[in-house]
Amino acid sequence: MSDRRVDHLLRIIWMAYEKEAPELKAIEKEYGNDDFSEVLQLLIQEKLVTVKGDEIQFTAQGKRAGEEIIRRYRLAERLFADLLEIPQSDYEWLACNFEHILSPEVTDSVCTFLGHPRVCPHNRPIPQGKCCVSFVNDVKPLVQPLTTLSLGQKARIVYIFPVHKKRWGQLHQFGVFPGNTIKLIQKRPSYVIEIGGTTLALDDEICRDIYVKKLMD
Ligand SMILES: [Zn+2]
Ligand SMILES: [Zn+2]
């Protein structure tokens, strides 16, 4: 399936599904181009979706294809937003192009490189790939949980999974947010980091949600 428009529409339908049961009209509006009917026909021909009245449904095959495309798109978002720090207005367009050019192998490399992120910068789920469940990997992650640092290692916070969001307000005050530099100074009995001249003890759980990039000094 090399048609970019097919990929694009698949992603639009997928994202509509995440919000609510999608109606054809809403999807057409979101798709935004006047070749909507033509591309929808392609999707139907390729047995990716079925349409009954105003309702659109993924086939099993379509669901797999949608999962792949959304995975590529959101990994690209993660890459552009967190690592390259490209502003949102630009990275959404980039991710849109990126989703068409990543091969499955490269996608898994990007995922590994990013430490197998579970959500995109908008906090929407990234479907897992083979790389996320297997432990055999040739690519060393560039971004990894804080817990993997060695003592004395300095690192920059790249992103934080908002799983334990309630507890973040407080940490934010101490400067625990993306872009800031930390140094790991203790692992046992609990994690202690140095940040902005103060030391801070953190729960293991929280540390696993903080993804960092090692800094050379
Ligand atoms: Zn996103
Ligand atoms: Zn992965």
Describe the structure.
The chain has 217 residues and is α+β, with helices and mostly antiparallel strands. The chain has three domains: 4-58; 64-133, Arc Repressor Mutant, subunit A; 143-214, Roll (SH3 type barrels), CATH 2.30.30.90. The chain is built from nine helices and eight strands. The protein has helices at 4-19, 24-31, 36-45, 60-83, 88-101, 104-113, 130-133, 168-173, 204-209; strands spanning 49-52, 55-58, 143-145, 154-160, 181-186, 191-195, 198-202, 210-214. Strands 3-8-4-5-6-7 form a six-stranded antiparallel β-sheet. A two-stranded antiparallel ribbon has the order 1-2. A hairpin with a 4-residue loop joins strand 5 (181-186) and strand 6 (191-195). Helix 1 (4-19) packs across helix 2 (24-31), helix 1 packs across helix 4 (60-83) and helix 4 packs across helix 5 (88-101). It is elongated and about 60 Å long. The N and C termini lie far apart (46 Å). Bound molecules: zinc ion (2 copies). One zinc ion is lined by residues 74, 77, 120-122, 124.
Class based on secondary structure composition and strand pairing: alpha+beta
Which architecture of the largest domain would the CATH scheme give at its second level?
A: Roll
Number of helices: 9
> What's the rounded overall pLDDT mean?
85
What is the radius of gyration? 20 Å
CATH superfamily of the largest domain: Ferrous iron transport protein A (FeoA)
User: Which regions have little confidence, pLDDT < 50, spanning 5+ residues?
Assistant: none
The largest sheet is: 6 strands, antiparallel
What order do the helices and strands follow?
HHHEEHHHHEEHEEEHE
The unique ligands bound to this protein are: zinc ion
Beta-strand segment tally? 8
